[in-house]
Amino acid sequence: MNPAAAVRQKAIDEIREADQNFSIxxxxxxxxxxxxxxxxxDVIKLNDGTAPTIGFDSLRAQMSRLPAxxxxxxxxxxxxxxxxxxxxxxxxxxxxxxxxxxxxxRSAQYGVYVTVWKRQRNGQWRFVVDGGNSTxxxx
Length: 139
Description:
Blueprint: H1 3-29, H2 31-38, E1 39-45, E2 53-54, H3 56-64, E3 72-82, E4 88-100, E5 106-119, E6 125-135
Parallel strand pairs: 1-6
Antiparallel strand pairs: 1-2, 3-4, 4-5, 5-6
Organism: Spirosoma foliorum
Pfam families: DUF4440 (PF14534)
Protein name: DUF4440 domain-containing protein
């Protein structure tokens, strides 16, 4: 493998791992913790049916309004890719949002997402753009 391809492949592997860890944190510690941990300072979060959330402070405020024991969001990476420079990439996948009603009955919503990742000065990957939309339940 040539050096440029090796840099790109390493970035793809790191982005895929960051995305998976992001989902695990969302499941175990909640959406608010996960989104504020993995977001960049200049984040843009696309919101279904409303204006985007722009900037980390706005994202933190949005996430702080989520109930502590609210819905659980998890997702699975289906594709990851990166620039040959190794500093920018994306993930695409499927998400599932589960919640309980007042009677304790569970329900789920499904969708797809795309997340753009950027390597930060400290070498960590943070998302700069995230968005998705609802879909029927996957088959």
